[in-house]
Design brief:
alpha/beta, nine-stranded mixed β-sheet, six-stranded parallel β-sheet, about 35% helix, about 25% strand
């Protein structure tokens, strides 16, 4: 019996997949189809897969050509599968010509003619979300670069109000964006708006975009007025729009895994969460950070707050802040959130430097995420008995914005807010930033 194996994601199952499976089956007597797992796709940078693994397997099964379906979970699995299943022929479409020649050592490799004019990427791009940018700082540049890795969304324009002309021109030139001076015109050309202008503008800008029936992704720091933030979420809900908190760490696979792991009880009851994020900005952006956000707590505070809130929840009972201020700007802030049985500590600075790690202390052990933990790709679980220590490795792609952009697209398509960073969690962060803004529990040194 001649055994054939082929692999693919099979997202949004289409004619190209059907033809490939049909011809693969014709190559032998028994066809095994490997369908990629979500984690494997994510690790190799395929972030936009729309269908769940179960649905993709079901679609392959329904084609009627597969005698057996397996899940592809890791790099190098193809060699193991070929040996394990006694495969005679490995096949994939001609878009991969040459790529799998190394498998010739184990079985025959046969590239099948790819069906022209169709792909999952094309289907995803058919309903492309046109995104307009409001702001042109360095974060906007990184965001636009990363958006290119996400199918189903295209950054198309920039709105000029309040944005420096030279900065807008540079962003537009580098990303082939149209510049809009007129709000109505801008609104006619986009489906969603990325707000990355100064914090004090966020509420007004979010409201304008929501009132014009556009989805919104707002860069960190989201809001420092909890009531206002709540009202905006309510407005988004009434209008069936997505109001999305653009805090990239919240959507990064390794960070999410680390949070889930801590909830399993592996390190016992979590007692403290301790996170730091310090960054001495270059002179040019230092002024911008100061005027845009008003210091380290606003500029970076949401990162340690995210760790605290994801790991300990939103019902903290008290907060305290200790800031070193110069000319009314906090260059260094240490803060504390008290919970019933635990506490969180955070350090942020734009004028000082310290180790940027995250540690989560528990009654049985602790989790350690080295600097830069806000771009988590590796962490450890450590115990008294070091033989039990575990190391966890993941891939962190690019600047990390692509994860939040992919999740934003998913939320818009599903018509549902994100579970990775919920409205309640965003509101809890706004509450803390509001207390800091209003000098509640703030001491200076
Ligand atoms: N395939 C094909 N013809 C197409 C599309 C895909 O023969 N028009 C083949 C691929 O070469 C591969 C298999 O179908 O052997 C599964 O491909 P997959 O990557 O899941 O599909 P794509 O449509 O190429 O997906 P994407 O656009 O996300 O890369």
């Amino acid at each position: 019996m001649k055994k054939v194996i082929t692999y693919g994601t099979y997202d949004l199952f289409h004619q190209g997949h059907y033809n490939l499976l049909k011809h693969a089956k014709e190559l032998g007597d028994y066809l095994i189809v490997g369908v990629t797992s979500e984690a494997f796709d994510q690790a190799r940078g395929k972030l936009n897969v729309r269908d769940s693994l179960v649905k993709r397997i079901e679609n392959v099964r329904k084609s009627g050509f597969a005698d057996e379906i397996i899940v592809e979970e890791y790099m190098g699995q193809k060699i193991d599968d070929i040996k394990r299943y006694g495969i005679d022929i490995f096949t994939v479409g001609s878009d991969w010509v040459g790529h799998f020649d190394y498998l010739n050592e184990f079985c025959k490799v046969h590239y099948l003619e790819r069906t022209k004019g169709i792909s999952s990427t094309d289907i995803r791009n058919r309903e492309t979300i046109r995104l307009g940018v409001w702001g042109a700082g360095s974060v906007a540049h990184r965001f636009c670069l990363e958006a290119k890795f996400v199918s189903g969304l295209e950054v198309t324009g920039i709105y000029r109000e309040g944005v420096d002309e030279a900065a807008a021109n540079e962003l537009a030139e580098q990303n082939q964006l149209l510049i809009y001076e007129d709000w109505q015109e801008f609104m006619e050309e986009v489906d969603a708006v990325y707000i990355c202008n100064p914090l004090q503008e966020h509420a007004r800008c979010i409201r304008m975009a929501l009132e014009a029936a556009k989805h919104v992704i707002c860069e960190t720091p989201f809001m420092s007025d909890a009531k206002e933030a709540e009202a905006l979420f309510e407005l988004a809900g009434q209008k069936k729009l997505i109001l999305f908190h653009g805090l990239k760490t919240a959507y990064c696979p390794a960070f999410l895994r680390m949070v889930s792991l801590s909830k399993t009880g592996l390190i016992g009851n979590v007692l403290t969460v301790d996170a730091s994020f310090t960054k001495i900005f270059a002179n040019a952006s230092s002024g911008q950070v100061r005027s845009n956000s008003g210091g380290s707590m606003n500029a970076l505070g949401e990162y340690p707050l995210l760790a605290a809130i994801k790991l300990l929840g939103t019902d903290f009972r008290e907060s305290k802040f200790f800031s070193r201020k110069t000319e009314d700007v906090d260059g260094y802030t240490w803060f504390y959130l008290g919970y019933e049985h635990s506490m969180a500590k955070g350090t942020v600075a734009i004028d000082a430097k310290k180790e940027g790690c995250l540690t989560i202390a528990g009654t049985k052990g602790y989790l350690y995420v080295p600097s830069p933990w806000w771009k988590t790709e590796y962490f450890e679980a450590r115990f008294e008995n070091f033989n039990k220590n575990m190391k966890y490795f993941y891939k962190f792609q690019g600047e990390g914005f692509r994860y939040e952009i992919a999740e934003f697209v998913r939320c818009i398509l599903k018509g549902q807010g994100s579970l990775m960073l919920t409205k309640e969690e965003s509101l809890a962060m706004a509450r803390v930033l509001e207390m800091y803004r209003d000098s509640v529990g703030v001491e200076t040194f």
